[in-house]
Amino acid sequence: MTDHAKPDPATEAAPRLSRRPIRSFVLRQGRMSDAQTRFLEAKMPEVGISYAQAPVDLNAVFGRTAPKVVEIGFGMGDATAKIAQHLPDTDFVGIEVHSPGVGNLCKLIELEDIGNIRIIQHDAMEVMEDMIAPDSLDGVHVFFPDPWPKKRHHKRRLIQPAFVALLASRLKPGGYLHCATDWEEYAEQMLAVLAGEASLANTAKDYAPRPEYRPLTRFEARGLRLGHGVWDLVFRRR
């Protein structure tokens, strides 16, 4: 059966997703399919974590003690689902503001019977600051964030010194921060910002090979065939 699209309710709900005046995201006028809406409404009460200005006990949320990894901005969630299936002994918290992507990941969780993913639909900066305790994470993934290519918009880029310092503080010693981008100029900025954080050490001379756990997306594979670059950066907390 073909899914019929309907307006995305999240486009009317920006204030509840962030308190910050300058955001790294824009809630664009999007559309949700019937399936995305259905799975979001049915599955989020089970896998969703409500935003709160208080630390969350992730072991209690998942019902087990296991490595914990946060993914910031998971898009439609396809890579998130594949990584979680590839690493069933690790728990993943995906953060995303866009309802179509949240609904799609809810669908994948249900249809693929994935038990090690939870979702927070809120501004990642506020989630990391308010809900994630210091020295608690084994990893953070930031894959293909919006490059905000125009110079006047660079202040909106997610990877900035203050945010990287916050992410590093949430990692356990030895925990990793993995960023990836297909925008070369942003990759150069990422490398400079990450290298400038004293609590992080690069695992490579500059850019890292794509780790096995990060799947090659269809968009990425097409870009590579056309000669486009993709840059991975993997740093560890000292």
Structure commentary:
One of its GO terms (molecular function) is tRNA (guanine(46)-N7)-methyltransferase activity. The protein is built from nine helices and nine strands. It is globular. The chain is of the alpha/beta class and 238 residues long. The longest helix has 14 residues, at 34-47. The chain has helices at 14-17, 34-47, 58-62, 78-86, 99-111, 124-130, 161-170, 184-195, 218-225, and strands at residues 5-7, 31-33, 68-72, 91-95, 117-120, 137-143, 171-181, 200-202, 231-237. Helix 2 (34-47) crosses helix 5 (99-111). It is 34% helix and 20% strand. Mean pLDDT is 89; it is low at 1-15. Helix 5 (99-111) links the parallel strand 4 and strand 5.
Quickly describe the structure.
With 238 residues, the chain is α/β, with parallel strands linked by helices. It has helices at residues 14-17, 34-47, 58-62, 78-86, 99-111, 124-130, 161-170, 184-195, 218-225; strands at 5-7, 31-33, 68-72, 91-95, 117-120, 137-143, 171-181, 200-202, 231-237. It has a 7-stranded mixed sheet, sandwiched between helices. Strands 1-2 form a two-stranded antiparallel sheet.
Which descriptors would you attach to this protein?
alpha/beta; Rossmann fold; 2 domains; two-stranded antiparallel ribbon; 9 helices; 9 strands; disordered N terminus
